[in-house]
Amino acid sequence: MAQQSSSGVAGLKAAFDSCQEDYGVPQVSPNARPLHYPFWFGGSSSCCAAAVTHPLDLVKVRLQTRTSNGPRGMLNTFVHILRHDSFLGLYSGLSASLLRQLTYSTTRFGVYEELKSSTTTARTSPSFPSLIAMASTSGFLGGVAGNPADVLNVRMQHDAALPAASRRNYRNAIDGLVRMTREEGWRCLFRGVLPNSMRAVLMTASQLASYDGFKRLILSRTPMHDNLVTHFSASFLAGFVATTICSPVDVIKTRVMSAKESKGLRGLLVNVYRVEGVGWMFRGWVPSFVRLGPHTIATFLFLEQHKKLYRRFGGFTEGQHAL
Questions:
Q1: What is the 3-state secondary structure (H, E, C) of 95-115?
Q2: What local confidence, expressed as pLDDT, does residue 103 receive?
Q3: Nearest CA among 202, 217, 72 for reference residue 138
Q4: At the N or C end, where does the chain have fewer CB atoms within 10 A?
Q5: CB-based contact 205:136 (threshold 8 Å)
């Protein structure tokens, strides 16, 4: 009986440790030298991922801001851009996209890791609801910090779709920020900050919860192991959940930021619903999903390589995790 009790306790402990690992909670050895990754790793990894998925993000913005006579569908939009703007047109606004990742993603990844590290000791780790709260907080702060670059990013991606007389023709991200501030005042840098921050909260929290949940489900219910295939599958499903949850807020954010004049949120919603019905909430969903899946996978792959190199050149063991 004692032996059965002992094995039962051991089994529960193993299940708890497995659950903690699945949800990204580091297992810390009391004798391990503290490992603290640089704040900017998340932003750097996201920039690498953005360089890969930027054409998909561009198509998403074009579809969300499409006029009645614009190209319909993701493939038609790709063809339209290639025909009128050449291959380089798919990378229109790339400098603004990279600036957005350097501000938005650096903040949300960095703050999340700092909060998680501050509540992790050699004997205790934050609970799953605590991780969700940390992700929501870091997402909100990231949305605020990255809003100026996000406004600029949407404008530069949407610019080529406008008539020649209506284009802003920003040369690059820095030129765009300077001109926006000079021509419209600093307040325009925070246009749409509320829906953008709410989207950042939803995106960060839904990605964290769904990715970890799907990963645990795959590992416990299938013969798959903790490898690239599992990571791809879990992030693919997480991208589906995050895209669906964030789609309405994403469309609102894009409409507000690309508008030439400032409109109230309520007036914008009433006007969009009157013209497009409920379908507006999921306009651009397919390119959003197609972009978010590869972007999520690439971001975490680049992030893990950042951490691997940091451990190797910092003299840490491969099995050692950050506090």
A1: HHHHHHHHHHHHHHHHHHHHH
A2: 93
A3: 202
A4: N
A5: yes
pLDDT at 95 > cutoff 50: yes
Mean pLDDT of 77-92: 84
Q: Mean pLDDT throughout 23-36?
A: 52
Which of 292-323 are b and which e, b meaning 16 or more Cβ less than 10 Å from the residue's Cβ? bbbbbbbbbbbbeebbeebbeeeebeeebbbb
Alpha helices in the chain (DSSP H): 2-22, 41-64, 74-85, 94-100, 106-118, 128-145, 147-159, 173-184, 193-221, 228-258, 265-276, 285-314
**Which amino acid would we find at residue 197?**
S
What whole-number distance in Å separates Cα of residue 64 and Cα of residue 22?
Answer: 35
**How many Cα atoms sit within 13 Å of 258 on the Cβ side?**
25
pLDDT at 262 over 90: no
Of residues 199 and 266, more confidence is placed in: 199
Residue 254: phi, psi to the nearest 5?
-65, -45
